């Protein structure tokens, strides 16, 4: 599945959510939601790695929560991209793939 197809599906779900709760979506809103989700991912990570209280969750539940929070953060990244008119596939390719080396001997800057 291509990233733009995933973005289309997540964008539709985000629009449904906003309509249901009367939220006006914008790039600023999406960025704030992304920040919120990254915070929740950090909290889940701390719990799953024993750096915070276990919140009464088993190890398997903690791992599931980390994965779900990562999904939320990725999803909101895609919503933000759409709100800002950014093609996520092009953004990733332009930023990351320029660092790919064609051979192990090639030289160049390190990836971010």
Question: How would you describe the overall organization of this protein?
Answer:
The protein is mainly α and 112 residues long. It has a single domain (3-86), classed as Orthogonal Bundle (Helix Hairpins). It is 67% helix and 0% strand. It is built from four helices and no strands. The protein has helices spanning 3-21, 27-48, 59-83, 88-96. Helix 1 (3-21) crosses helix 3 and helix 2 (27-48) runs antiparallel to helix 3. It is flat. The model has no long low-confidence stretch (mean pLDDT 92).
Spell out the key features of this protein.
67% helix
- Please tell me the total number of domains: 1
The share of residues in helices is 55-70%
CATH architecture: Orthogonal Bundle
CATH class: Mainly Alpha
Portion of residues in beta strands equals under 5%
The total count of strands amounts to: 0
Please state the structural category.
mainly alpha
How would you characterize the largest beta sheet? none
Quick one: overall form? flat
Write the layout of secondary structure elements.
Layout: H1 3-21, H2 27-48, H3 59-83, H4 88-96
Helix pairs in contact: 1-3, 2-3
Keywords: Hydrolase
GO molecular function, one term: hydrolase activity
Domain NTP pyrophosphohydrolase MazG-like: 31-93
């Amino acid at each position: 599945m291509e990233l733009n197809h995933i973005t289309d599906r997540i964008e539709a779900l985000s629009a449904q959510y906003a309509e249901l709760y009367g939220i006006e979506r914008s790039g600023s809103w999406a960025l704030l939601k992304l920040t919120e989700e990254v915070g929740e991912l950090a909290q889940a990570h701390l719990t799953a790695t024993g750096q915070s209280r276990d919140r009464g969750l088993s190890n398997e539940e903690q791992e599931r929560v980390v994965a779900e929070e990562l999904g939320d953060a990725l999803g909101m990244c895609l919503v933000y991209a759409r709100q800002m008119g950014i093609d996520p596939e092009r953004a990733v390719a332009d930023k990351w793939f320029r660092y790919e080396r064609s051979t192990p001997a090639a030289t160049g800057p390190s990836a971010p």
